Amino acid sequence: MNILETKLPGVVIFVPEVFSDDRGCFLETWNHKRYQDAGITEAFLQDNVSFSAKGVLRGLHFQFPQSQGKLVQVLLGQVLDVAVDIRVHSPTFGQWVSTILSETNHKQVYLPPGFAHGFCVISERAIFSYKCTDYYNSSTESGIIWNDPDLNIDWPMAEPILSRRDGEYPRLKDIPTGKLPHFEATA
After folding, report:
1. Residue 137's domain spans which residues?
2. What is the pLDDT of residues 80-91, one digit of tens each?
3. Does the active-site annotation cover 61?
4. Is 182 a catalytic residue?
5. Is the pTM of this model over 0.85?
6. CATH code, domain with 151
7. Which side of the chain, N or C, has fewer Cβ within a 10 Å radius?
């Protein structure tokens, strides 16, 4: 497994070893010890899968105060995946990283608690998988408008297909700091 650091500390891209032959391929998508050795020490408590058509954008979502870490990957199709640091007082607050996740590159992205997450489907359809470090709690869900001009995320389309909720989220600067996670420096 190859581990790629990003400009956002804690957001990590994993590229697993893939064994391919004329029958298809095999890869390991989770091994507690291997990921723990890579710094992912949280326990995963819930798995989710979403199916989306081309042009669907989901995000930018986060939970607070019950924040979730996520290990995400695409099982079918291709998406542009985005992580945004929303931890108040973080040196990288408001910065984002993106990567292409697909059924052919098999990459995974780990987003620690304190990051907003979104993705946009660029293939005809996509099946997206999430491993989460905490249970979903609708009373703590929130989000940031996908096209926040202060974030200036380079999405692959100007008019994605959105849920009503995703189209009504506020800009990051309009969310009170008491409703965002706070950065905690590690020793």
Report:
1. 2-18+28-179
2. 999 999 999 999
3. yes
4. no
5. yes
6. 2.60.120.10
7. C
